[in-house]
Amino acid sequence: MKYLLISCIVIGLIWWFKRGRRIDNSSNATKPEPEAMVRCLHCDLHLPSPDAVHTEKGAYCSLEHRDLQESRDA
Fold this sequence. Notes:
This protein is an alpha+beta fold. It has 2 helices and 4 strands, in the order αββββα.
């Protein structure tokens, strides 16, 4: 009975260590590259550059903010 208990503990420890290594390996997966952030000239919101509306003056978070800022500057 003593040997059965010891062997169960050893098998459990081996399983636990293998499981831990498998989880650690998944954290080394390739992570997406960070995107460049820009600031809206109207409301100062920071957003990813591909999502922004770009003009010669700068970037805006939406078409509405672009129109509002341009009408305010005019």
